[in-house]
Design brief:
alpha/beta, Rossmann fold, seven-stranded parallel sheet, three-stranded mixed sheet, binds NADP nicotinamide-adenine-dinucleotide phosphate
Length: about 350
């Protein structure tokens, strides 16, 4: 009986596979293309503790037969696969559908398999954070990002929708035959990438700083959690935490300007942009910037938002890595592999 990890080629999925193999688990890792070295080479190189095994299988969330085959006979499922982009010309097809159609296929496969005893679904703080929030407020998992729309927050919409699909399906199953279910809600994830594919998604901001794509930092708070802690929380949630629990995994936060200063201190020979743009200037930049909008800037810049991760500390016994450690542990693999 294997632990299936969907999206195993991904940043978080790869660390979950590494964590499970280090515990000697039998892992069935799903990827979209088993012949692509950027998706599988780092998985094949992972150390495997006694009793463990790694089976890499091809699965596309839109191909229901491949989802059925990947999950058949599994005892445990960690469903991380999703499209992790926040804007697209076709947000329905590129951002929402993989989460919605994909997760519908996943729960249908779990039902068909009838063997899955534990199900951990990767959700996000994006499924919790409403578009508008009060400066300085602390969010808990009581909140849902129900105001997310295709136009203004397609990624939030995708994460809310997929979590609701999992929870709705779960609630409709007979209590005696349904798997244990927990959802994990990371904020922005940092920590060692294992493949150049991991530099997209949450590492895109850091890569823009590494590549000095902009000469300035925004007056922006970044909530941070380490990818190794995210993986650990997923694995602990297979057996720990409350049934149907929603767990925020957030270690703390840094201002973007402080991130730049820490990176400069750690790598003084490289050039870093350390100037923090004043708010009015950042709004002006947003007017012309291809990646940020004025409404996004108004909603996010200068504001503080905190997350209550104490339930994960209590129920999953998580102790978070310091955000600055996670940040500084991200860059060595980037520089050593020439991914910068
Ligand atoms: N990184 C963060 O800061 C963060 C924060 C909160 C929540 N999350 C959630 O964590 C999960 C993993 O994110 P990540 O950061 O690890 O992103 P990632 O590196 O982009 O990984 C996403 C994974 O999903 C797979 N995938 C995408 N579309 C698929 C499809 N149609 N069929 C099958 N697989 C597909 C990708 O496969 P390919 O390699 O083939 O593209 C990849 O393995 C996502 O659910 C994301 O929403 C991430």
């Amino acid at each position: 009986m294997a632990v299936v990890v969907t999206g195993a080629s991904g940043y978080i999925g790869s660390h979950i596979v590494a964590n499970l193999l280090a515990r000697g688990e039998a892992v069935r890792a799903t990827v979209r293309d088993v012949t692509d070295p950027e998706r599988v080479a780092h998985l094949e190189a992972l150390p495997i503790a006694d009793g463990g095994s790694l089976d890499i299988v091809e699965m596309d969330l839109f191909d229901a037969a491949s989802v059925d085959a990947a999950i058949a006979g599994a005892s445990d499922l960690i469903h991380t696969a999703a499209s992790v982009i926040v804007r697209s010309k076709d947000p329905q097809r590129k951002i929402v559908d993989p989460s919605v159609i994909g997760t519908e296929n996943v729960v249908a496969a779990v039902e068909k398999a009838g063997t899955v005893e534990r199900f951990v679904h990767t959700s996000s703080t994006a499924a919790i954070r409403p578009m508008n929030y009060r400066d300085g407020m602390t969010l808990t998992t009581d909140t849902w990002a129900d105001d997310a729309t295709l136009e203004d927050n397609p990624y939030g919409l995708a994460k809310v929708s997929s979590e609701r699909i999992v929870r709705g399906w779960h609630a409709a199953q007979p209590a005696e035959s349904r798997p244990r279910l927990v959802t994990i809600h990371p904020c922005m994830v940092f920590g060692p990438p294992m493949s150049p594919r991991h530099l997209r998604g949450s590492l895109a901001l850091l890569m823009a700083m590494v590549r000095r794509e902009t000469p300035l930092n925004l007056p922006m708070q970044v909530s941070i959690v380490d990818v190794r802690d995210v993986a650990e929380a997923h694995v602990r949630a297979l057996t720990g935490g409350e049934e149907e629990g929603r767990y925020l995994v957030v270690a703390g936060d840094m201002m973007m300007g402080d991130m730049a200063k820490a990176l400069k201190k750690a790598h003084p020979k490289r050039r870093w942009a350390t100037w923090v743009a004043p708010y009015w200037f950042a709004l002006f930049v947003a007017l012309f910037h291809p990646k940020i909008s004025v409404s996004w800037a108004r909603n996010h810049l200068r504001k503080k938002l905190y997350w209550d991760a104490s339930p994960a500390e209590r129920d999953l016994e998580m102790i978070w890595k310091d955000p600055i450690e996670s940040l500084l542990d991200t860059t060595p693999a980037i520089f050593e592999n020439g991914w910068d």
